[in-house]
């Protein structure tokens, strides 16, 4: 399953446009907030396919039947660019447990990009709905590497891979290298990767735009 938010008209398109606009990007506070707002919208979309059970709420005037989540999902993000996007999910799934992964690209040359992962903080994932959020899904290698590390903590019931912007190559890599039950949720799927494995047209380096250029 692949869900593309911008396939249907909504106010989310405004947030995506501001994330891409090189003039608006100069305001790092607004960039982080737009990632957070997009995270909130995508969290709402993911919530629609989770498992629910009947529940009853008592008001001062009577009872009302409704449907509530069976269990809260587990939220996971890849440091550092994922933090504002992750906060949007945490605003919606406000009782969810959270985990963090440190993963980064190692560029051997323009055509070969490998991924190193040196930090993992996660609880038991057995039979849980796991939501992994990362604003940019480029090559897909960091995502697959993250999942392989996380499986040491148990096999989730289902994994939801969420990105603000994705490249077709990254989605294709996941489809060929991830052997677990998963769904992909994206704000928009762009044209391609360039020779440096950056998404075109994309928006640039999300981590730098959020927090400043790294050395």
Structure described in brief:
By secondary structure, this protein is an alpha/beta fold.
Number of DSSP strand runs: 12
Q: Architecture in CATH?
A: 3-Layer(aba) Sandwich
CATH topology, by name, is Rossmann fold
> Biggest β-sheet, characterized?
8 strands, mixed
Radius of gyration, CA atoms, in whole angstroms: 18 Å
CATH class: Alpha Beta
Q: Describe the global form.
A: globular
Number of domains: 1
Order of helices and strands: EHHEEEHEEEEHEHEEEH
**N- and C-termini, Cα separation:** 38 Å
What portion of residues is helical? Answer: 25-40%
Mean pLDDT: 93
Supply the helix-strand structural class. alpha/beta
Percent of residues in β-strands: 25-35%
Helix count? 6
Low-pLDDT regions = none
């Amino acid at each position: 399953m692949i869900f593309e938010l911008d396939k249907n008209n909504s106010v989310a398109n405004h947030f995506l446009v501001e994330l891409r606009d090189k003039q608006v990007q100069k305001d790092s506070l607004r960039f982080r907030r737009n990632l957070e707002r997009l995270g909130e919208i995508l969290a709402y979309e993911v919530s629609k396919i989770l498992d629910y059970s009947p529940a009853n709420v008592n008001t001062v005037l009577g009872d009302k039947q409704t449907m509530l989540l069976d269990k809260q999902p587990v939220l996971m993000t890849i440091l550092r660019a994922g933090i504002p996007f992750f906060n949007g999910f945490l605003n919606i799934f406000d009782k969810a447990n959270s985990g963090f992964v440190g993963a980064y690209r190692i560029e051997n040359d323009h055509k070969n990009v490998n991924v190193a992962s040196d930090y993992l903080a996660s609880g038991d994932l057995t039979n849980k709905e796991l939501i992994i959020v990362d604003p940019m899904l480029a090559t897909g290698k960091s995502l697959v590497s993250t999942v392989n590390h996380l499986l040491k903590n148990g096999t989730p019931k289902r994994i939801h891979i969420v990105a603000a912007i994705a490249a077709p190559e990254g989605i294709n890599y996941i489809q060929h290298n991830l052997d677990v039950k998963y769904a992909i949720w994206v704000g928009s799927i762009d044209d391609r990767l360039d020779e440096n494995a950056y998404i075109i047209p994309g928006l640039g380096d999300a981590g730098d735009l959020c927090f400043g250029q790294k050395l």
